[in-house]
Specification:
Keywords: Membrane, Transmembrane, Transmembrane helix. InterPro entries: Leu-rich_rpt (IPR001611), LRR-containing (IPR052394), LRR_dom_sf (IPR032675). By secondary structure, the chain is an alpha/beta fold. The chain has a single domain, classed as Ribonuclease Inhibitor (Leucine-rich repeat, LRR (right-handed beta-alpha superhelix), Alpha-Beta Horseshoe), CATH 3.80.10.10. The chain is 39% helix and 13% strand. The protein has 3 helices and 4 strands, in the order βαβαβαβ. It has a 4-stranded parallel β-sheet, with no helix packed on it. α3 links the parallel β3 and β4. α1 runs parallel beside α2 and α2 runs parallel beside α3. The longest helix has 12 residues. It is globular. The two termini are 21 Å apart.
């Protein structure tokens, strides 16, 4: 079972990140997600944030400065989560 997914430094763009967000809606095993240094825009960051709103499994989330909105949204929604 996949519990850690490191997608940092992969030049992931908006389309791929939107698909990832769709998958996160159904995630029940992934606990750590690294999306540092990718090409994720504001609209896609909001899409990921919406997916993480319903995801209670992710406990560690690594993001680049461009995705700061998503990082703080997730922490605000799930106060017990720990950023990395």
């Amino acid at each position: 079972t996949l519990t850690i997914l490191n997608l940092g430094y992969n030049d992931i763009g908006d389309v791929a990140a939107q698909h990832l967000g769709d998958g996160l809606l159904y995630n029940r095993t992934l606990t750590t997600l690294n999306l540092r240094t990718n090409k994720i825009g504001d609209v896609t960051a909001r899409h990921l944030a919406d997916a993480l709103r319903y995801n209670t499994v992710i406990v560690a989330l690594a993001l680049a400065i461009l995705c700061l909105y998503l990082h703080f949204f997730h922490l605000d929604t799930h106060h017990s989560r720990t950023p990395i």
